[in-house]
Design brief:
CATH class: Mainly Alpha
Helix content: over 70%
Strand content: under 5%
Number of helices: 6
Order of helices and strands: HEEHHHHH
Oligomer: single chain
Largest sheet: 2 strands, antiparallel
Number of strands: 2
Number of domains: 1
Length: about 170
């Protein structure tokens, strides 16, 4: 990779990280136990264009900068979840960005295993609330976010291919 392409990659990822922070921290529906946002879109785009490691690291950067901007305290579990989500998107979307089955699998793993599973465990630890109590509230978020992610990523992949972003 040449110097110019490295600069373009770093700049692109930086802009997408900034967009993720804005969508997640400032333009989302936030309650104490769940957040509904479109912050997955920039990370999915990084994954499509640059792969799993870049997407995972971009998600970590967005999480850490977002925590630094406040008002939520740092908890390493959420940073781990962010990294894993970026990796999942990268594994399934890089080189196959428009394939519907890959989009469904990636969105299902992220929303069900990572967001519903791991994030609920992290909230249980932080808030000292029983897992089942959090789970039943958060399952509604999953029911909304899974189809939303599938549709948004499918549209994003088609637009990105058409405009030659990926």
């Amino acid at each position: 990779m040449g110097r110019k392409s490295t600069i373009i990659k770093i700049t692109t990822i930086g802009l997408l990280v900034a967009l993720e922070i804005i969508l997640t921290r400032y333009l989302s529906i936030q309650t104490p136990i769940l957040r509904i946002s479109f912050g997955f879109i920039p990370i999915a785009l990084v994954a499509m264009k640059y792969g799993w490691l870049s997407a995972g690291l971009a998600a970590v950067m967005a999480d850490l900068i977002g925590v630094w901007l406040g008002p939520f305290p740092f908890f390493p579990g959420f940073t781990l979840t962010a990294f894993l989500a970026g990796c999942v998107y990268g594994i399934f979307l890089h080189k196959n960005p428009g394939k519907l089955l890959n989009i469904i699998i990636a969105a299902a793993i992220v929303t069900i295993v990572l967001n519903l599973g791991l994030d609920t465990i992290w909230l249980m630890i932080i808030q000292e609330v029983p897992f089942t109590q959090l789970f039943w509230v958060r399952i509604w978020r999953t029911a909304v976010m899974l189809p939303l992610q599938i549709v948004c990523i499918l549209i994003l992949s088609r637009v990105a291919k058409y405009t030659k972003l990926i």
